[in-house]
Amino acid sequence: MEAITFNIDNGYLDGIVRGFKGGILSISNYLNLTQCETLDDLKLQLAATDYGNFLQNEPSPLATTTITERAREKLVAEFQYIRQNAGPELAKFLDYITYSYMIDNIILLITGTLHERDTHELLERCHPLGMFDSIAALCVATNVQELFNTVLVETPIAPYFEKCLSAHDLDEMNIEIIRNTLYKAYLEDFYEYTQTLGPTTAEVMGEILKFEADRRVINITINSFGTELSKDDRAKLFPTCGRLFPDGTFRLAKADDQDQVRLAVELYSEYRKFFDQGPGTERSLEDHFFEYEVYLNKRAFLQQFHYGVFYAFLKLKEQEIRNIVWIAECIAQQQKERINDYIPIF
Amino acid sequence: SLFRAEDISLIQLYIPLEIAQPTVAELGELGQVEFLDLNPNVNAFQRAFVGEIRRLDEMERKLRFLENQIEKTGIKPKPLTGNLYYGRTRTQQEIDDLEARLTEHEARIQQMNESQDTLQKRYLELSELRQVLRETAVFFEQAESRTDDPLLVIQREDSHLLAGNPSPDPEDAQDQRDSGRINLGFVAGVVPRARMGIFERILFRALRGNLYMNFAEIDEPVTDPGTDEVVQKNVFIIFAHGREILQKIRKICESMGATLYPVDSHPEKRREDALAVISRIEDLKHVLDSTRNTRRMELSKVAESIEAWAMMVKKEKAIYHIMNMFNYDQNRKALIAEGWCPTNSINSITYALRGVTERTGSTIPPILNELRTKKTKPTFHRTNKFTAGFQAIVDAYGVATYQEVNPGLFTIISFPFLFALMFGDVGHGLLVTGALVYILWKEKELNVKNGGEVIFDGSKPPNLISTIRWDMFFGGRYMIFLMALFSVFTGLIYNDLFSKPLNWFGTGYKFHTEHDHEMRVGEKLWTYAVGIDPAWQLAENKLLFLNSYKMKMGIIFGVMQMIFGLTIQIFNHIHFKQVQYIYAETIPQILFTVSIFGYLVFMILYKWSVDWLAVGLNPPSLLNTLIYMFLAPGSVAPSEVLFPGQAALQVFLVLLALLCIPWMLCAKPYLIWKESVRHRLQGYDNVQGNRDSLDSDRTGEVTPHNGDGGHGGEGGGGEGHGEHEEFSEVVIHQVIHTIEFVLSSISHTASYLRLWALSLAHAQLSEVLWDMVLANAFTMKGVGGTIALYIAFGAWFYLTVCILIGMEGLSAFLHALRLHWVEFNSKFYGGGGRAFIPFAFADFVEANGGPAE
């Protein structure tokens, strides 16, 4: 069915996004990038790729932050273009993608306000995909209740927020809890939604989101060691749409240290190898996660007629920007020996 | 010449390092050399002159910044004149100066921008403050009109508008009075209009409705100095009570991008403030104006020469890009360049090089060597504005292999002719001719105007598309002109003017009614002087006659063109010294075509030349004759006999054609095989590669370096002969080729029937249009008739131009194109070459939208 009807609304954008995907840097591009001596060389090399002359109006001593910013601007512009041309169903899907950025932005602002940073400075650091009109008003609020009632009630992520409404004051710990609760609600909701979008989208996005959920579960578990978060509270933060649920999450909820985490995850063949690292390897767990994410996202492009490509494209491109920034930082700080630690995409 | 590509030589230049840049500049102006990349393996940023290019990039960025500023200010940059001085490339010194100047300008303008921005911002704030004061004054005055005590009014307003507090707390009022009238319970400011809704909502939610808000729109739009965007803003004033709440409101206002202004609660104080603000605004305006003026002056100074600078930087950048393709010699004193150039231009190149040496006063002149090479050379046809369009048609199919016969030359006549066969109509032809005469007359102006329209940036796609279409049309103007002229000619032959015949010489038919027929029968008295007798236009059997005539005409011209194409092969074979292939390939192909289709043409002409009525025989069907020539060789049905001895001739021709097939099939592979055997017998098998390397002077595989050129070790350039071509491959290739030729000779001949089909369609369409639209109007009488004729003529003319000239013209063009690309070119044209693209400034000056803008 999808094969017949998908292209009516989404054929153009599907083509566009696959075209964009063709512009993702390849291994040989990265090889060239890693050979650069200065950031200006990097600029020259990037000019030969799909990035074109995105840096051409920058005065010469380049900063890595400028590169990040411009690269992100380009990605955001591409995403906005897709969003603007999307039909209703795809538009909703794309909006779902932006919710995660909204959550990040909200947390960023709340934390910033807590530390009494300048609001405008904070706003500049927000991800442009997660902006909404009243975001600036977030810094007025002093507790969760107020936060919700003043600002968030009219944002799309209000439903997620309802679940973590407690009268607690905002402190470091609570913000972290809020973030994870929000993410849990968001992931579960997004997962549910993608399962209604036809079998291919359900399959592709299911894979990706399940992994995303599992990654969060593992990360939460590991990061909670040594904090005052109780095990029960921790278990409440685990998203329930992952592959680890319910068996793995149950074990993880009881884990006390890294080894127990490893044991809990051992049963899942995809994840086992993340922990199987020899003593010499420098790859962190995070890197393994990113690698696997790239693998899943790349796989999304092998299927036709589904929305997963849009999500995958965004994530791959983000990974690419992370790579470029990594390489740029290595060049800027003369840390050439670690320059090859980026995660190749194609 | 257009017949063959020009001779191309591989040249090698030794350019002393210190004059490398002016030399390349000179060659760029000349535009006759295509440089080869001598370091293809070197990364873009590891090349010799990356530093310079980067510097120029930086200069370009500054130029863009300045240009942007100029554009924003609304100054028109002085267009680049044709003046050579401005366009010429500069010396190193001048570039350095320019860089310094650009930096200076940029810094100054940036500084001025900054100060202007701050001033602007202050001005903006003040004018907003003025607005706030004015609008709040209105609120307060309205209140004042009700009571004399303004303070009380505020309290009262508070009291009855604050829904949450139906009865005002006297203590609270006291509190506020106590707090010294500074914090009277209101906040005033300005907020962008677009944000108003959210602003209100958030305030309402945050304060749970405990506020009274009043706002007024500012009529004059405010320009944001940061983004240069016009923003509509609102003045608001919010009344609330309680220090905490006011604090909260302030915070929300700030986060929502609103600006707050202090407003005093005392009317006198407010008036004073307002006056002070107004005077300050006046002052600021003065300063602002003068800043703006200086900035404008600075910018207009820049605008004077920015185009010239931009051109200069662009050229310099191109020069360094070219120089990046060069090699250093051993002791890094000179650059070595290699490139293709037309052999004829070598003289002008040496002359240019000498000029550079003299001008720069260098002691060592650049040296030019001509190298011998086995590399495939690029194809270069010198064209002018007349031939360029035709050559473009051929190049679109495929660029000619180096020095093979170029169909472009024949296309000049054959293309318009085949087009005209399909488009033949005096009226349409004349209309197009008229338009083209105008375009050619105004050629210069239109070209310049057009050049101005082509703006080299993607930001204006619709404009770009329309200019591309215009460019196509304009580029082919001479072709279209010829096409129109030829159409007039064929129109005369077809005797067709908007589907009406011309009876200039008087028809050659006399009509009389035969008693047993209703219709009148024409009796031919004499032959009409030019073209078809106008009487046919009215004849019942007009279509029968015209179809037969045009069909046969199509076949005749088609066979002629194809045989012509085949004979061109001979020139190719002679030129490439493969005379034996003339016998092995060309002659059987020609014989095959002539014996079947040449015979068909002969029959057509013969049939025309016989007056069948006078002989008293039925004219035989040619199609059947041709078919039965193969199905039943040696016998001709008595009713179908054209001429005596036909049967014997046909048998001979069929046998000849059949003989040609194995001839084509075997002769060429046999020759190739024989040659390779001869090579082996003479023991050249191994020597061949060696000799080639000596010839080419640069193979480097067998003899690594032979020193007479003294150039660096760029090895592995020349390719040896593909001596051991698989013989079976040759055979298979030949089999395919033969089968294709035999089959296509039939389909290609049939393909020329499109000449008939399109010409028929064109004539019929134009007739229908005349009958349906215009002819009806002629039948009406009186004033109604006049009006109807007026309208009908408009419609008819519009449709004629759009459908008959525009659409039909395009389709005839396409079919003529196909006849050339497929039917004609396939007979002799390889088209496997590579175009010669010289390094020329003129090209990218044009590509960048020309001097204007």
Describe this protein's structure.
The complex is a heterodimer of chains A (about 350) and B (about 850). Chain A is an all-alpha fold. Chain A has 16 helices and no strands. In chain A, helix 5 (about 90-115) packs antiparallel against helix 9 and helix 15 (about 285-300) crosses helix 16 (about 310-330). The longest helix of chain A has 27 residues, at about 90-115. The mean pLDDT of chain A is about 85. Chain B contains 26 helices and 13 strands. Chain B is about 60% helix and about 10% strand. The radius of gyration of chain B is 43 Å and the shape is flat. Chain B is an alpha+beta fold. The two termini of chain B are about 35 Å apart. In chain B, strand 9 (about 325-330) and strand 10 form a beta hairpin. Chain B has helices at about 20-30, 50-75, 85, 90-145, 150-160, 170-180, 195-205, 245-255, 265-325, 345-360, 390-395, 410-425, 425-440, 445-455, 460-475, 475-495, 540-575, 580-610, 610-615, 620-630, 645-680, 685-695, 725-750, 755-780, 780-825, 840-845; strands spanning about 10-15, 35, 185-190, 210-215, 220-225, 230, 235-240, 260, 325-330, 335-340, 365-370, 510-515, 520-525. In chain B, the strands form 4 sheets. In chain B, strands 1, 2, 9, 10 and 11 form a 5-stranded antiparallel β-sheet that branches. Chain B has a 4-stranded antiparallel β-sheet with strand order 4-7-3-8, with helices on both faces. In chain B, strands 5-6 form a two-stranded antiparallel ribbon. Classes of the chains: A mainly alpha (about 350), B alpha+beta (about 850). At the A-B interface, helix 3 and helix 7 of A face helix 2, helix 7 and helix 8 of B.
